[in-house]
């Protein structure tokens, strides 16, 4: 915060200040004896930023970007729901000059600032306090004050405050999702109604927080159309359909609705204002605690119907999307239902048998677009036949595909009239040539055989000369079997490789895993955009104390991949101690003595005549000779790697 050397207030600000002061004095509020304290703030070239300590001991922060810091005695704090806009002319001691305009704070901004202050503002950590202040500025950022805010960020960064600025921006971003408004809470789910076609009934599953259920076209188990739900836990209730009377109807529709009530915590759009007695000075603020309340509402109605027609439906859900080449079994769960008319039967359990056929399409290099049917020429990995002999329900299917290649696979299931037994075809439940099929390219019916990558790596240099602490590694991915999976845009899915650096006193021995006596120095990641191209990783800086040997192990691990890509690559690591991934740290030469045959340049005695002959050692030429020789040696070392 600062004290301006030249600042003019706009008439609007003066009117606002006068309006604010009147009710305070009418209530008998008088200024406190002390101004807010700057103690504990961080100074960036004399510009103090952080938490003010108010007269009542609170930690308060500036709420008005560009306005002078409060140095006069404080008025007593008051709770406010609005922060008016203002316009000020600024000419400060840090070279910023211009007009700062800020609109009145919105309800959302008030709520976000309250969250920042209440959750993070009461801190004795000076760096954290700077982040809080930056977050408040970010929340109030707009075109009229952005230049002033960015100017101050430049001042902070120039004086070691980059981390504080970035921390504040992250805090402001978090506030946008964490500062919840009232009415945000709702049940974790909707009403799910299931039917039992044979019993002309079913059940409704309701989420936690449900307070009551209502049914039209049926009754609950106790014969009532209203059901009060006790407790806050999720549960279910059974119901039975009531066919229309007095005449029969081909369709009976049952609709279930409900009400809910859930607890919620939200943040008021309010602040505690700590104004100064001078209306031209900054108003600082603290936060208000969250409110714990209750939110109520109604579920959307869920309807089901019953008819006497038989229209079988088929859907599938693969229990595991990923299939490994080592266990190439494609498993699917086929759910067969009877539609709204029930399943024809000759008794309680004697269901009419039908046959369903499944086709597994694939492999495809990229995900397929959902469509009614598979595209012409689509590859087929295999087929399965399912005997649906127990009526509606779930049926497990397994299909083994030897040597399944990397790619995307999709199930498509059909119930075809022509594939049924003659007895079923003669029953009249199927029209001639009828086909009941699900769609091609449905994500729930998709399998993925992951990409198998093998990593090739090599350090740029295998010797680190004295004073050189940077290791640079290069990596490329080579497809081990099949292809490299692509995304919806047919671009290769990036693979993130982790490079882990280990130190050992002696030359490492190549082996699958790092030995216990190897010291892990750290790691970094590098992204591969496709196969066979070498990628250079960022330099890894070795700590000054590290001596001996350093080797790098490259790994492809699910946890390092981008979101939703963790299982798209088979986990794999290269060996520890690969020679191309190992570097020796060269120790500085011991100080020489006059009797030694090694010159001060670091060259051997045999190389010195060449330097003298070149005129590089002599009066005024020794330093140039040293530099030239070191460049020569480095060039030779670098030339060893290709």
Short description:
The chain is of the alpha+beta class. Helices cover 16% and strands 34% of the residues. Helix 2 (107-121) runs antiparallel to helix 3 (126-139) and helix 3 crosses helix 5 (162-178).
Return residue spans where pLDDT drops below 50 for at least 5 consecutive residues: 2-33, 244-250, 592-642
The biggest beta sheet is recorded as: 6 strands, mixed
**Rg (CA only):** 37 Å
Judged by helices, strands and strand pairing, the structural class is alpha+beta
The helix tally amounts to: 8
Straight-line N-to-C gap: 56 Å
Mass-distribution shape: flat
Helix content: 10-25%
Number of strands: 37
| Percentage of residues in DSSP E strands | 25-35%
Look at the structure and give the mean pLDDT: 84
